Input
Amino acid sequence: MSQPSSSQVLSPSALAMIAQHCKVARDQVRVVPIEGASTGCRRAVALAGTQSVFVKEADPEASNHAALAAALSKDDAVIRALQQAGSPLVTEFVQYDDERVIMLSQAYIAKDGWQWQPPDAADKLARQRYIAAVLRAIAQLEQTTLPAAAAKTLALHATAFDRVVQCQGLRLLCDDATRREELQQTYRSWAEQASKPVIRRRYEQVCAVLDNTERLADLAALAQQVADQPCDCLSHGDVRSETIAYHAAQDNVKLIDWQWAAYVPKQWSATEFLLDMARRGYDVQAWQAELNR
Output
């Protein structure tokens, strides 16, 4: 199957912005699309000679364009705040056009030693180094201090945390068989349509939980325990392999897609990451035990 042309992946405005940044003619820009994002934005790596740029663009014709624009704007603002705070976890450069809703940032590509997938689960040493590096990065982020006004300016209030933990949705589901069945039907449909096995398994696991009211009650009780913890640790909000660039030789981590950044309880992000690894077939019991000490 032939690759789509650059103009099919990104808009002429985005291509012009890339060409200007790289100081090349627009026809010298080659675009490689990136899949697997949850933002809904067009995403690609743009190559121009020896230069490479990561590009995100909100589709101007998308029905949720305003939401995409807000997400990219926050992504840009959080990156800049973390740059000012001296965080090594963000891109070294970012350029954002708020009118055209296009973001350029450093591309972390394979030829420079970066990988976007965890090591093979069978390679125990590589797996341990990868998990340890990401957990160190998460801990470092939790200790990052931003100005007091940043939580409001950057919309760092933990809205996702509120929805998951502080609402009574889990408890209400325990008592509402009709709603549970409706949700199961929805997730079964999503599982059938999922293009990746790991995503399909996630939906199937949700269906299994919805079919077990005792498990739902346990989760509701655990959610209340989490709700009682202070939200005072800075979190990326979506730490999973698709947002993690890892350099094995340097044992270094970079994170992208900061639009979900928020203040959450300590080790929330580490738990989120380990859950993603477990879904991918990795044994994370030792790491979980460490978190639960």
